[in-house]
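New to this. Comment on this protein:
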Amino acid sequence: MSVILALVVALAGSFAIEASAAARRVSLRPGDVGVRLGSYALITAFWFVFSWRPWLAGASTLATIMITMIIDALKRKILGESLVFSDLALLRQVPRHPDLYYTMPLTHPRIAVPLLLAFLGVAAWYAIEPTALPLGWPASLLAMVALPAALLALWFGGRTRFGRAVLAARFPEPDLEADVARYGVLATMLAYLARREAEAATEVPPEPLPVPVERGDEVVVVVQLESFLDPTRLGGEALPVMARIEREAAQHGRLAVPTHGAYTMRSEHALLTGREGASLGFGGFDPYFSGGGREPTSLARLAKAAGYETVFVHPYHRDFFDRESVMRALGFDRLVMYEDFAGAARVGPYIGDEAVAARILAEARARSGPILIFCATMENHGPWKPGRLPGIDDPLAQYLHHVGNAGRAVEALIDGLSSEPATLCVYGDHAPSLPGYRPGDGDPRTDYALFRFGRPLPQGSRRADIRIAALGCRLRDAVARQTAAAEGAGVAVPRS
């Protein structure tokens, strides 16, 4: 009886917690409520397997829902998006790289002490509440085997043809905010994960790009500037580089990117593959986690086919976003990463953009043949919080300081590459997650510029506001001109 009562309390309490914390009014349609309560029941059963104590399992479920909703609210506030299944894969990065997130190391007293108290509380509860296992070791053993087996059977059942059809009927395509309002955060996360696995098992990869006949420029440099946009849009002073972009860039403008404030990999993937996130289905939430970089439309693959050396430059750790394996899968032969910047100047916690620009120019000058360099900078990565820069504690002031360095780095690249036939593309991966620039405020797009040195500037207006996947397609012309022509007018996107 206590098992049923604890389950009812866990389901009702979880529903009340999620309904009170939800960003939108929760659906009360019977089918939707059934799915939501089913997810709570699964969580309760999961915790029950570990303890066989119904009230401890119920309390653990309530704690799970409460913590989930707190994290979901924080993510919505900063990034404007609910939790998704791919966030679970990123959790392992938080203790490894706490400085990248609005958190502290596990050894910090504000984290370690609550964790220790929670552990001691669970241990005490475990000792006080009697087990709900049946009497006698045969019955207890049967129960201990049967419940985990039932949970595993349910999981694998969802991966059968029938199970996938049921999930596809409920979740035909990604509609994150609507699905969270209907079914809850955790149910949506689990369903999206299962739908992504089903997609991966049946998806047909896009056609590979045609083998290039004519090679493009000897040097092609693409720089993804962390959190970059024109600082005048945030009330900052105009950067000298923006005036040079107006005068010297072959094409420039606003860039529509897939996200706000984070998820660099979404913009990076769209640029390198020329694929919109919508074409990836449920994998669009984290293309690297979903596809692993094996896409045949990769710019690096095209460059390799045209005889280019392909280099990825990123002044951070190889394990972050699994970039080492993903970038090699995308077609990059050589990776220049954190250990290669030993002794390089830092600005705040990260390697400075000007040091990265110097390394890019050194790679271009040392080439033995045509070279494609793709770089992802780090200097202006959040969070912007007190103590990051000496004497500058205001988040916006910190951001503007870093973006000024980014502007000087871009100018150094322009000066270093302009004397030879070369292509330089610079763009912001997403708007910054600053307290004063929340999702939906103003214009969520970033800025980009495309320089084609050694050739006359195009006639007429060179301003073109485009989507980032279109910019990726446009860059194909830099390494293999006939490929871009074969792609057709898809690279020409009207101003948005």
Observations:
- Residues 483-496 have pLDDT under 50 and may be disordered.
- Residues 214-481 form a domain with the Alkaline Phosphatase, subunit A fold (CATH 3.40.720.10).
